[in-house]
Write a structure and sequence with these properties.
10 strands, two-stranded parallel ribbon, alpha/beta
């Protein structure tokens, strides 16, 4: 395996407040990981919050910051994170994806990505190519999209997919610091599948007991499937930020290397 292959990250981003709260376990995890990662040439960012009916790639040279959240403290809206885009790398992504993707620069960098990156790489000096989550694609198709992106890792690209394994806003417990039993169970089942490299089980997550409560809509889970495809064959995978918050939100994240 190429030792220079850049890693793949799946980040559970959760509440936008994780971007700034000093007590946030997620934020502390992102900051720590940022000190350990090799600096990438570019970040290919797959966001749950750019949910589209096709796979879209931002090709513009900029990434206007999008505050796609409402009713939070003013200090959150004062976070500034707008790294450049990369038409060059975006073109390579489009070439790899072929008919599976199309150019679209109508979106920018949303909180699913900047909340994580402003802690991983706070200087905002690494270009980011934004990629949408195709909510019409099957699990197998999403995994295949990730597989097609894998060669970017050989060109210095860090692939970051951001979502949540468990994401049910209708059941959020605002006073909870951990997860409901059903959320824990689903999250742990997915963790075991990933750590055992059981891609078939992961792609068939809808056969897991209680999946509808954990994944009532798929846009936050789908980036995980893309990440797993991009990481296919990796020699190392570990779970990090492994916990639940607000009852129905999983923060569990994954790092694949080599």
């Amino acid at each position: 395996m190429n030792k220079d292959l850049m890693p793949v990250l799946f980040a559970g981003h959760g509440s936008p407040m994780n971007a700034i709260e000093e007590s946030s376990r997620a934020r502390n995890g992102w900051r720590t990981l940022g000190t350990e990662l090799k600096r990438p040439s570019v970040i290919i960012a797959v966001s749950a919050h750019w949910a589209a009916r096709s796979t879209l790639v931002r090709t513009a040279a900029d990434n206007p910051q999008i505050y796609d959240m409402y009713g939070f403290p003013e200090e959150l809206y004062q976070v500034k994170y707008a790294p450049s885009g990369s038409p060059e790398y975006a073109g390579k992504v489009l070439k790899l994806l072929g008919s599976d993707a199309e150019q679209d620069s109508s979106w920018g960098i949303d909180h699913g990505i900047w909340s994580v990156l402003c802690n991983l790489f706070p200087d905002a000096d690494i270009p980011v190519v934004m990629v949408s989550t195709n909510v019409t694609a099957s699990p197998a198709e999403l995994y295949e999209i990730g597989r097609k992106l894998k060669p970017m890792r050989e060109e210095g690209a860090l692939i970051l997919a951001s979502g949540n394994v468990v994401h049910n806003l209708s059941l959020v417990g605002w006073d909870m610091n951990d997860g409901y039993a059903w959320a824990d169970q689903f999250d742990e089942t997915i963790r075991d599948l990933i750590l055992s490299r059981n891609s078939e089980g992961l792609l068939n997550y809808q056969k897991i007991h209680g999946w509808k409560r954990a994944v009532p809509t798929a846009e936050h889970f789908d980036p995980l499937l893309i990440a797993a495809g991009a990481a296919e064959g990796s020699s190392s995978v570990k779970a990090w930020n492994e916990y639940r918050e607000l009852g129905s939100m999983s923060m569990t994240s994954y790092l694949w290397e080599n």
